TrEMBL record, chain A:
Protein name as catalogued: Tol-Pal system protein TolB
Start and end residues of each TolB N-terminal domain: 22-124
Subcellular location: Periplasm
Cytoplasm listed as a keyword: no
TrEMBL record, chain B:
PANTHER family given in the database record: LIPOPROTEIN YIAD-RELATED (PTHR30329:SF21), STATOR ELEMENT OF FLAGELLAR MOTOR COMPLEX (PTHR30329)
InterPro entries assigned: Bact_OuterMem_StrucFunc, OMP_bac, OmpA-like, OmpA-like_sf, Pal, Pal_lipo_C
Domain of life assignment: Bacteria
Function recorded in the entry: Part of the Tol-Pal system, which plays a role in outer membrane invagination during cell division and is important for maintaining outer membrane integrity.
Alphabetical keyword list: Cell cycle, Cell division, Cell outer membrane, Lipoprotein, Membrane, Palmitate, Signal
Lineage: Bacteria, Pseudomonadati, Pseudomonadota, Gammaproteobacteria, Oceanospirillales
UniProt entry tagged with the keyword DNA-binding: no
UniProt GO BP: cell division
Protein name listed in UniProt: Peptidoglycan-associated lipoprotein
Membrane topology (UniProt): Lipid-anchor
Amino acid sequence: MVRAIVCAFVLTMSTWVSAQLVVEVTQGVDSQSPIAIVPFEWRGNQALDEDVARVVEQNLERTGFFKPLARENMLSFPTAQSQVFFRDWRMSSTDYLVIGRMESVAGDQVSLTFELYDVLKEQTIHAQQVSGSRTNLRDLAHYVSDILFEQLTGIKGAFSTRLAYVTAENLGPDRQRFRLQMSDWDGMRPRTLLESSEPILSPAWSFDGSRLAYVSFETSRPAIYIQHLATGQREQVQSFPGLNGAPAWSPDGNQLAIVLSKDGNPEIYVLNLSSRNLERITNNSAIDTEPFWAPDGRSLYFTSDRGGSPQIYKYNLNTRAVERVTFEGNYNAAGRLTQDGRFLAMVHRGSSRRFQIAVQDLQNGRLDILTNSDYDESPSIAPNGTIIIYATQQGSRGVLGAVSIDGRVRFNMPVPQGDVREPAWSPFLR
Amino acid sequence: MRSTNLSKALALAAVMAFAAGCGSKSTKTDSGAMGSDAAGGAAAYGSGTGSDVSGGSWADVANLRTVFYFDFDRSVVRQDGFSDLEAHARYLSRNPSASVRLEGHADERGTREYNMALGERRAQAVERLLIVNGANARQIETISYGEERPAVSGNHEGAWSQNRRVELKYVSR
């Protein structure tokens, strides 16, 4: 029995690890900064479980901002400043160089001392020592990636974040297994938050990252639940006849926008989580769904087919005025805003009749289509606004894809068992 | 008129005899039933309302269609489903303790929550037809599964058309 569990576990893990990660650069590479992340030196006895430099390299590559130098093209592997010959790195057209040394410190802690160099100026840009648990080296790698990314771009790194998503597996006729999962931003270290034979959908992070709201059919009816991530404790939000769906947190964490059909038609309501007061927002015979808050908390966006096809609208919470936001294409839905409120990511179907991820610049109305397959949905934006993760299909299977917000770099995440859908990117967690 | 009803009954019997062997997969074969039913459906629609002495026994509904299909992004019940829904409504009106659950579904295209709303509207459209034809709202429970429980998998209209549906299930007779 134990062996069976271990085998199942190993099988799951190896499925993740063996999946080929292909980073596809869709536009010219001129705008990507060449960088070299040299393997870090390890001054300890037992080999480490993670290649920390490799994780850092993959993180930086996937943002679309950097083009890492392949290890086989490195002329040397310096781990200290005295071993760095800038001429060698200029020869391999490298702009930035990262080297580092790791050693064991007290208990299970390891420390990493790393330096970031500007190769052309032959200068140190940043040097730092960080430490972390030996059993959670990916945490350390993501933290270092955050520091490097911010040093080089001025943008806060979002590598120490998490994804929530849903998987579905067919176990036989009319038998399915749904799981609410949480992983690192890159799909690694998945763990299960909820498992059910009934559908789970629409995971949504509170703005402080402490709670997840989602819809579960576990009682054979849809209901909204809130799960506290630190304790695993969960509560069912007051449930009504009909739809109970599409939860979205207010920025202050006190309110939940939800979709109910208790009054006969899918409408958007705002539920105050402390007073339990329920306020109806929309009042229209069309479908109104998929609410999400503007980061400033002043308006709610939502999807409605009141104009004849699904489009995204904006509801001003003060004036109660509704204005239509999307106009291009005959299907625009599941919108999400960047934290600065400027860019609207959405599922878009235009003249190509394909469902693709698009971004609309709300300042000038310009719409850019970022993805290139037929059934892309559920966009979720990194808290620093650089990458959009979404659900797509590979063959007939649901997988997660990611695209930089300028469409420059696209890749699919490693694939676990079953269908993967509805990624939700956490806010900054530190 | 009598011959119309008789021929329809025979056609249905033939279809259901075919479907009977398929157990829980009957949703799939219902599309076959839909095709043959559709031809006689319009004629039966006019004639069905007169026969109000019957329709109250389980045998009257046991072989009726229980899956009703919809067009993309639409929640209007197709006419070919009217006569069977009327018969279900008649049964419900004569058996106040009977109740049904209407499960609305969408195909996989488009977003999940929008499809959840679409499945709800489809279930509600069927509910309205049942109520208009005599069923009591208390006998009907609606639920939407959106695109979460497809009847058929596949990225083609053949699969999608069978997934855009409402399934009528008797909770009690």
